[in-house]
């Protein structure tokens, strides 16, 4: 009987698309959960036994226990002549998948058929329950039929919503379920009806998905417009599918958005195509500003579209590749049409085509990287193409070597610029030695950076070459002691580190700056061999870098708190720079300080660059996260080039809070502190009711050219089934929750 009852659980899982939703309320059980044996004999108990040649009847608190089945009933009768087992009077049954209650359960053993009337059920491993007026399963045909069935993920005692069906058929051979006269009821109000539904038992089938509903104001509009979308999912094959969404925009017309996904043993990816006959664009034109600051109006542009292709593939065991490609009809497409929120404020979309090859100690790549220019796009170098190869080998447990070679072609495909373009060949051989002990480690590095340029435009010299060596030695000691803090035992470390680096001066002023800049703020960059990123400059130096780090480790050796401070001392002036200055004769660098904490719900990482001359903070990064069950707070603060003409300071912060009961509040703001303006804001008010939640979110985005986008989004979640819109908690993680 247990395999037959398990068939019933298959239907109850139909609407749980991926996994059971985490309920915010306690989950009462239909029956007290009981552990079931996986093997062994069948045991039957009862108060009274009546046996004849044709039937056996047990009455009075009957219990049956067999592998993966426990059954209780007032009466259990076995009709020997017809081989039928009937359980009556308060039947309670449990398998490892489902619990059920009914007053009558009949099992025809020869026909392998089971039937129940007025059954109430609950899944053991998922938040789902329901009822049916009648359930019948035929084992040989592998079909199940339910009459007047209903399903919900709400806990017992909460009947907020149900899916109701007049008739349901589950076909195990076809791996599908078929329903007629399907209703979705919310608080007793029918919101959705379908005369026929076909759904897969393997969680994939063609059909309508949850609709899209939001309000949006594009930059060139003075008022918001409504957007309603109906997605339809095509389950084309087990390894590829397609989703077609018809979006009706109040003032622009009908947009078709199609997303095709594929997955094979050697590749996976997504191809998205979107198009609209824009009623506003056809009557008013499209206006945008190009990289030269010129304004353009496309009076005849009415067909607007986009293409996005994201793919990763494996051609052989050693050859892999990736595609990240975008095409759009006009620079304002994503600002006017809210398909992808991440692109609304962007000025460019990077595009990449790349092949990677790896075998043993050798790896190589060929890459094409350029940009799709949106509003106010500036000058960006593009590599068309870039080829690189790396060979590395461990010579011993101590010695290791590597050779990196790269050939790149840089150009700016925008008329009117005056920057040099051309080819760069780069070679970087490196030799390392490293010794490790329990009390510390030390090592040495020898590196050569050689570049050769063949320039074709906007450069006084067409051929340039340079080769710059770098030698570095470093060492670190580790001291430990046991301490007690906050009533707990800890291990505290003290780790002094020194590094001596020498790079001679080589004149590189005439070399272009294709991909080179000053390294970003990081404590580890205090010990970088080159103070510049990219391949066009190697900074000359004779430098002694010193740092002192202390860490607090718990009894498991996990770091909970660390603090570090460091500074570089220059023994000679530096002449290689990115700007016009020819000499930097300061004797010491700025001071770098780092404080990091990770304990319980708190994570904090703070790095500061301090000018010792006036004790001012030149650069600062603060990241903070506090995550608990009912409260999440995230913060990312960036201060760059403080007290300089190019100073920038931004603050991205947000919270998600359930202050009392089921109400939820959320907010996100990205604030430009230097310009005193909000780049982006989101406010959300939500209500969580155990098996569903709803959220209203308002958003405002300021574009780089001063225009604003406004939007309104309605989020509705049926837990364990589907989600309409993007909840605030997910938005926070996408914006600032990656650390």
UniProtKB/TrEMBL annotation:
Where is the LptD C-terminal domain positioned along the sequence? 303-674
Gene Ontology cellular-component terms for this entry are: cell outer membrane; transporter complex
Annotated PROSITE patterns: PROKAR_LIPOPROTEIN
Q: Which Pfam families match?
A: LptD (PF04453)
* A GO BP annotation: lipopolysaccharide transport
Signal sequence, renumbered to the chain: 1-22
Q: What are the UniProt keywords, alphabetically?
A: Cell outer membrane, Membrane, Signal
Note the InterPro entries from the entry: LipoPS_assembly_LptD, LptD, LptD_C
Which compartments is it annotated to reside in?
Cell outer membrane
Purpose: Together with LptE, is involved in the assembly of lipopolysaccharide (LPS) at the surface of the outer membrane.
Looking up HAMAP family in the UniProt record yields: LPS_assembly_LptD
**Subunit composition and interactions:** Component of the lipopolysaccharide transport and assembly complex. Interacts with LptE and LptA.
Similarity section: Belongs to the LptD family.
In Swiss-Prot or TrEMBL terms, this protein is called LPS-assembly protein LptD
């Amino acid at each position: 009987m247990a395999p037959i009852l398990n068939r019933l659980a298959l239907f109850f899982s139909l609407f749980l698309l991926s996994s059971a939703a985490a309920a915010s309320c306690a989950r009462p059980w239909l029956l007290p959960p009981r552990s079931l044996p996986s093997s062994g004999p069948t045991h039957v108990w009862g108060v009274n036994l009546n046996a004849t040649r044709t039937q056996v009847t047990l009455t009075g608190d009957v219990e049956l226990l067999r592998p993966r089945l426990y059954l209780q009933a007032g009466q259990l009768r076995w009709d020997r002549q017809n081989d039928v087992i009937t359980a009556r009077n308060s039947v309670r049954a449990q398998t490892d998948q489902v619990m059920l209650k009914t007053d009558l359960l009949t099992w025809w053993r020869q026909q392998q058929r089971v039937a129940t009337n007025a059954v109430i059920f609950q899944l053991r491993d998922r938040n789902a329950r329901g009822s049916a007026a009648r359930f019948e399963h035929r084992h040989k045909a592998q079909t199940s039929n339910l009459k007047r069935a209903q399903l919900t993920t709400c806990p017992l005692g909460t009947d907020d919503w149900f899916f109701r069906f007049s008739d349901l058929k589950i076909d195990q051979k076809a791996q599908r379920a078929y329903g007629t006269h399907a209703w979705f009821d919310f608080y007793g109000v029918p919101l959705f009806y379908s005369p026929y539904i076909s759904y897969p038992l393997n969680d994939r089938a063609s059909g309508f998905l949850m609709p899209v509903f939001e309000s949006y104001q594009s930059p060139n509009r003075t008022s918001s417009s409504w957007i309603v979308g109906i997605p339809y999912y095509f389950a084309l094959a087990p390894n590829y599918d397609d989703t077609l969404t018809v979006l009706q925009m109040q003032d622009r017309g009908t947009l078709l958005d199609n997303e095709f996904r594929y997955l094979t043993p050697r590749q996976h990816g997504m191809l998205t195509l979107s198009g609209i006959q824009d009623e506003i664009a056809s009557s008013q034109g499209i206006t945008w500003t190009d990289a030269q600051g010129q304004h353009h109006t496309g009076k005849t542009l009415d067909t607007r579209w986009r293409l996005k292709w994201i793919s990763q593939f494996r051609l052989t065991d050693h050859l892999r590749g990736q595609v990240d490609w975008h095409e759009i009809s006009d620079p304002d497409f994503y600002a006017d049409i809210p398909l992808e929120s991440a692109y609304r404020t962007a000025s460019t979309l990077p595009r990449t085509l790349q092949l990677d090859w790896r075998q043993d100690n050798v790896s190589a790549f060929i890459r094409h990287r350029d940009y799709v220019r949106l509003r106010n796009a500036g000058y960006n170098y593009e590599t068309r193409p870039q080829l690189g190869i790396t060979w590395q080998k461990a010579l011993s447990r101590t010695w290791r070597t590597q050779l990196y070679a790269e050939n790149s072609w840089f150009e700016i495909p925008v008329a009117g610029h005056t920057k040099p373009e051309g080819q760069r060949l780069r070679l970087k051989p490196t030799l390392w030695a490293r010794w490790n002990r329990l009390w510390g480690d030390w090592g040495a590095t020898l590196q050569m950076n050689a570049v050769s340029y063949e320039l074709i435009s906007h450069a006084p010299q067409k051929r340039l070459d340079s080769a710059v060596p770098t030698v570095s030695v470093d060492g670190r000691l580790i001291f430990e002691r046991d301490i007690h803090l906050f009533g707990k035992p800890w291990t505290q470390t003290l780790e002094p580190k020194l590094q001596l680096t020498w790079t001679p001066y080589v004149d590189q002023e005439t070399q272009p700056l294709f991909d080179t800049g000053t390294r970003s703020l990081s404590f580890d960059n205090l010990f970088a061999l080159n103070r510049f990123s990219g391949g066009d400059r190697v900074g000359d130096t004779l430098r002694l870098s010193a740092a002192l780090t202390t860490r607090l480790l718990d009894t498991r050796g996990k770091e909970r708190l660390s603090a570090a401070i460091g500074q570089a001392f220059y023994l000679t002036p530096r002449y290689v720079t990115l700007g016009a200055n020819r000499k930097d004769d300061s004797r010491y660098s700025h001071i770098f300080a780092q404080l990091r904490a990770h304990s319980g719900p708190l994570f904090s990482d703070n790095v500061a660059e301090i000018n010792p001359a006036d004790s001012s903070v030149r650069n600062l990064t603060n990241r903070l996260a506090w995550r608990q069950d009912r409260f999440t707070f995230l913060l990312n603060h960036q201060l760059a080039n403080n007290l300089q003409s190019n100073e920038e300071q931004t603050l991205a912060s947000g919270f998600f809070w359930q202050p009392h009961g089921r109400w939820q509040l959320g907010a996100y703001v990205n604030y430009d502190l230097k310009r005193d303006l909000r780049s982006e804001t989101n406010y959300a008010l939500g209500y969580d009711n155990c098996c569903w939640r709803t959220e209203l979110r308002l958003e405002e985005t300021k574009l780089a050219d001063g225009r604003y986008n406004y939007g309104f989004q309605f989020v509705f979640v049926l837990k364990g089934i589907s989600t309409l819109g993007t909840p605030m908690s997910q938005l926070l993680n996408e914006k600032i929750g990656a650390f």
